[in-house]
Design goal:
Blueprint lengths: L1 H12 L3 E3 L2 E3 L5 H34 L5 H9 L7 H4 L2 H7 L5 E5 L6 H15 L6 E5 L10 H16 L7 H12 L8 H14 L5 E5 L6 H15 L3 E6 L3 H6 L4 E4 L4 H18 L1 H4 L3 H15 L11
Helix pairs in contact: 2-8, 3-6, 7-9, 7-10, 9-10, 12-14
């Protein structure tokens, strides 16, 4: 019996002992196991991030979104100091800026300065946005065939949204996998403004703050694409703040009826004042005209502003 009693402790050392809810095994380091498991989880997580990053790069190449940054810079350079400021003080714009409305349409006749106003809005948003705010923009231009397609507009917007969210902690895995699937099925999604808008909408939903999207001169899309672009914008509207500009074409009126708008025809006084500033600066910039009598220059300005009839393009000859 004595020998058996001496062997009992030895037996107990060989089996697990349980204290409370913690089980210990001989030679087993729980801290080491937890650390190892955490490291393995971290490695798996990092590998997934790399995998998603590589997939996203392939998606962006596939989308080949048109970059409008250069067009934005050129258009903004046409703005004279102190012009366009009136737009930011209108009630519709302030409501849109303060996220009380999700859609604002700036409309006016050709050459009235809509694109310069749009570029001013983009510039203001870029300068004031916070770290997590997302901004996408597109300038339609009939002189550039690529920028007259509804699908091109949506490809660019989707690409911009994806690029700005990829460096965040947001989980884009499901979205990226669905885009990969769409890519592998062929070009149907890439050429469909509505399908691209659906993906853009899903991307916008992931942002911590509602993205701002500016589309300038949507009336310069080819006629058969205007309706498709409007349909895409309606899909995107629920998850992004939209600012668009165009002529007041009937097809556009029908497509976005009921939405808030600012008409340049209703802002004739403000537009005329901007044209006056534009002409005055151009007159002062010309050495030959700068020497004219001030009263004579005032008369020139008055005639030009009157004949311009709200069209900046008419006074563009003064370069």
């Amino acid at each position: 019996m004595g020998e058996q009693q001496q062997g009992v402790p030895q037996l107990r050392d060989d089996v697990p002992t349980q204290t409370g809810t913690t089980t210990t095994m001989p030679g087993f380091d729980i801290g080491h196991a937890v650390t190892r498991r955490s490291l393995e989880t971290g490695v798996d997580s990092q590998e997934k991030k790399w995998e998603h990053a590589n997939k996203l790069e392939e998606i962006l190449k596939w989308l080949d979104g048109l970059n409008c940054a250069e067009r934005q810079d050129v258009t903004l350079s046409l703005r004279q100091p102190d012009t366009c400021m009136w737009l930011f003080d209108t009630t519709p714009y302030m409501m849109w800026r303060d996220r009380q409305s999700s859609f604002l349409w700036l409309r006016g006749k050709p050459g009235a300065g809509k694109s310069v106003l749009a570029s001013s809005v983009i510039d203001s948003l870029e300068k004031s946005r916070g770290k997590r705010e997302v901004l996408a923009f597109f300038h339609c231009d009939f002189r550039n065939e690529r920028s007259t397609s509804a699908a091109e507009v949506m490809r660019s917007i989707l690409s911009q949204l994806l690029c700005q969210l990829r460096d965040t902690d947001l989980d884009l895995g499901s979205l990226i996998n669905d885009l990969v699937t769409a890519k592998e099925r062929g070009g149907a999604t890439r050429d469909s403004a509505k399908q691209l808008a659906t993906f853009a909408s899903r991307t916008a939903m992931l942002s911590s703050q509602t993205p701002s999207v500016v589309v300038d001169a949507l009336d310069e899309c080819i006629c058969r694409d205007i309706e498709a672009l409007l349909e895409g914008l309606v899909v995107l509207e629920g998850h992004a703040r939209l600012f668009v500009t165009s002529r007041p074409l009937q097809v556009i009126k029908d497509g976005i009826s009921g939405h808030t708008f600012v008409s340049l025809d209703d802002m004739a006084q403000e537009v005329s004042a901007d044209i006056g500033l534009h002409v005055a600066r151009k007159l002062d910039a010309c050495r030959r005209l700068r020497k004219l009598d001030s009263e004579f220059k005032t008369k020139i300005m008055s005639v030009l502003c009157h004949r311009a009839d709200g069209m900046f393009r008419w006074v563009a000859m003064f370069n």
